[in-house]
Amino acid sequence: MCIKPCDGLVGTIRVPGDKSISHRAAILGSLATGQTKVDGFLQSADCLSTLACLDLLGVRFRWDEDSLLIEGRGLRGLSEPTAVLDAGNSGTTMRLLAGVVAGHDFLTILTGDASLCKRPMDRVANPLREMGAQVDGRSEGRFPPLAIRGGPLKPISYRTPVPSAQVKSAILLASLYASGVSKVAEPWLSRDHTERMMSYFGIPIAKGDGWVAIGPVTEEPRGRHIAIPGDLSSAAFPIAVAACSPGSILRVENVGVNPTRTGFFDVLRAMGATVELEKEREVCGEPVADVVVEGTELRGVTVAGGMIPRLIDEIPILAVVAAKAKGRTVVRDARELRVKETDRIQELGAALGELGVVVETRDDGLVIDGPQEIRGGAVSSRGDHRLALALACAGLLAKQPVIVTGFDCADVSFPGFIDVLTDLGLQVEVA
Ligand code: S3P
Fold first, then answer.
1. Which residues have any ligand 1 atom within 6 Å of their CB?
2. Are 151 and 271 contacting, i.e. CB atoms less than 8 angstroms apart?
3. For residue 340, which atom of ligand 1 is closest to its CA?
4. Which residues are catalytic?
5. Does residue 217 share a domain with residue 139?
6. 200 CA to centre of ligand 1 in angstroms
7. Is the pTM of this model over 0.85?
8. What does the alpha-carbon distance between residue 321 and residue 343 come to, in Å, rounded to a whole number?
9. What CATH number has the domain bearing residue 157?
10. What is the DSSP letter of 299?
11. Which structural domain range is residue 102 located in?
């Protein structure tokens, strides 16, 4: 696709449903008894992978116009899959379902695409083994494909070495099958959608400073109605372009603003942008608001520590914003970026370099001195959806058009991105 520079963004938009919450709605709806109706489910490649895997575990889904109807099987109603579960590109699918099947007395094989098969799974395999599941995988159990033979599990008290919601969620889901109370502590708080949705389904969850406890689970969760807000991580792309384009005023309606996810807004404010939340409300246990951003000249900022998990998926677009901001932007403590869909430190540095932006890559982050001209030109998405979207946004802020090859992978999280831009009056050529 070819994207031309713009003079800013003015208007009101909506973005598709939250990816993290959609995965959890599909999984918890499957494990509840009775029907769960989900509105706003993200029909992206990743979430459809979760549905396809759950289908192989015996769960039936249907669509009623835009609502997803899940016929829940109850906690112990899944059946042994007769084929390999394919999580595609989705780490969330693989890690969360690993937790679910660890509690089932049957064999499950989980695989994924070339990118997912390079991503570390020992972070979930280790605690699940400690709970009593047999988990094997390639390279001494560290990488997919994973073979999991589940069964009765012991509760666990576990401190995760990295702040990862996927690891925390895998343990919480496995703990549904453990007799007693399990506890997970993390170095910094990661997104808490699983805890919130479990509470919404009536599962006993207690939270403290840096830890969450679950159980004992004595009652089956019952199916519920879930309304999923727009994905902040998708909204972040147009919001970022608006924030660094003086004259922009952009409203994004109905966005999830869970405080474990809103780090990017805090950072944009620290850079000088006006980002306001309007009509704040709670929907199905999640905070939701309309986000209004006004553009201005931004300044560089340092992002590190506990802020990182609050904006981990927004770092590719933050790097683009940093190129336009005056002064130095430093991202530290973000080594996790190296084990995302690509090594996002290396690939972000290389891709922005191809557009004329000088990025210093470090072991655990990036340094960008701005303002720099984003020259434009052709660049590959590297098959990474968030890089594809960030590079397209770089095109909106560039001197010359940007051609992003392999842009189709943006459908992993943000189907309809081009329609959102065209609704704002921008011209995009789909090559
Ligand atoms: C996610 C958690 C994060 C995030 C990913 C979605 C989730 O990964 O980067 O896009 O839905 O739990 P980690 O938990 O590995 O940090």
1. 20, 23, 92, 164-166, 169, 190-191, 312-313, 336
2. no
3. 9
4. 313
5. yes
6. 20
7. yes
8. 20
9. 3.65.10.10
10. B
11. 19-227
